[in-house]
Amino acid sequence: MTTYRITIEPVGAEVACREDQTVLDACLREGIWLPHACTHGTCGTCKAEIVDGEVDFGDASQYALLESERAEGCALLCVAKPRCDLIVEGEVDAEEGVDIHPVRDHSGVVGSLTDVAPEVRRLIIDLDTPLAFNPGQYVQLNVPSGEQRPYSIASTPAEPNRIELHVKRSPGGLATDGWIFQSLAVGQRVTLSGPYGRFSFRSARSEPILLLGSGTGLAPLKSMLKHLVETGSERPVVLYHGVATEAHLYDHEWLQSVAADHDWFSYRPALSRDSWQGRTGRIPDLLAQDYPRAAGRVAYICGSPAMVADTVKALMKARLFPRDIYREDFFDSADRASGATLVRGPLIRR
Ligand SMILES: Cc1cc2nc3c(=O)[nH]c(=O)nc-3n(C[C@H](O)[C@H](O)[C@H](O)COP(=O)(O)OP(=O)(O)OC[C@H]3O[C@@H](n4cnc5c(N)ncnc54)[C@H](O)[C@@H]3O)c2cc1C
Ligand code: FES
């Protein structure tokens, strides 16, 4: 297998990259943290200029990397593979208080697989080797067909050998309908890599926290909240969890118990389809009611791209600055095919 040398400018870092490996993967495994979010050529976060050399552009979405950008020498590093030695102009993504954990391959055994809500499964994987990560980050699960799918880690770094994932079934979906909701069973061995993503808890920030998730978008927010409990934080936290019906609320009792035990935490579940004794409506609408002004807080949003986009808009209308908003969009193949993924505020960090 041929290996090429990749130089990342302006820092001058050098990594070796196999011809079948993406440039981003080679960098993340060496602890060189370049901007990335979806790692599937969909969101455009990893776009960078190839200053010298040639790449195979890989499976870059035509919406995330325009023909004109390719012609100008840009590539999406999460899918681009080297064809020779390269010089890449990349913004190395180091931020105070955010630990850098090099990506590693892991293997583990399914410890439990539980239906926690309609079409939602909790998957616990007992890993052979510890996985170091920041609360909020995700892993790429290797699907038997050879593809990878990202899933946010719902557990915390305090349990590095046992990770928890929350998976929603996508009708006709390769990983979910075709595997996790079909043949995957307790005791089976799975492989994955990680950690990925920069949607992670910013411990250096001291502002009150808004955690805003829909559906399985609760997963990384649960990791952040549990981490705050474990580390004895008393920073004010409000968590909104938006789902369709009461049956879709999961981890409801645990969240209620955290709220009962800690006066710094407020839990606000909401249903968008059914009425019940609690609140109804979508998170962006509830935020507009609860926070005419949201300035002075830091928000973490996670869920479907449409929910994330609408929530960002609601927060910005309430005068929260883009620098105070972190987002994780759960893109899937349908979003990717439609190009809907690129509807985003220009300044919001993924
Ligand atoms: C950073 C990140 C973190 C994520 N974390 C989570 C998580 O914690 N929990 C979670 O549940 N999900 C998460 N996701 C989403 C997850 O990675 C998968 O996308 C999701 O589980 C669907 O995978 P799948 O293989 O089953 O479906 P896919 O095969 O990807 O298909 C998804 C849907 O699109 C349709 N489809 C497939 N191809 C096309 C096409 N060409 N045109 C139109 N429609 C098409 C399918 O029929 C299906 O309905 C995350 C995504 C990202 C980017
Ligand atoms: S991280 Fe490369 S396109 Fe999303």
Number of helices: 8
- Each distinct ligand: flavin-adenine dinucleotide, FE2/S2 (inorganic) cluster
User: What integer value in Å does the Rg equal?
Assistant: 20 Å
Q: Please state the structural category.
A: alpha/beta
- Shape, principal axes of CA atoms: globular
Question: SSE order in H/E notation?
Answer: EEHEEHEEEEEEEEHEEHEHEEHEHEH
- Characterize the largest beta sheet: strand count, sense, and whether it forms a barrel: 6 strands, antiparallel
Terminal CA distance: 34 Å
Name the assembly state: single chain
Strand content: 25-35%
Mean pLDDT: 94
Description:
There is one protein chain. With 350 residues, the protein is an alpha/beta fold. Helices cover 19% and strands 31% of the residues. It contains eight helices and 19 strands. The chain has helices at 23-29, 67-71, 176-180, 218-230, 252-261, 283-290, 305-317, 333-338, and strands at residues 3-9, 13-18, 47-52, 55-56, 74-76, 81-82, 86-89, 104-117, 120-127, 138-142, 148-152, 162-168, 189-196, 209-214, 237-243, 265-271, 279-280, 298-303, 325-329. It is globular and about 60 Å long. Bound molecules: flavin-adenine dinucleotide and FE2/S2 (inorganic) cluster (FES).
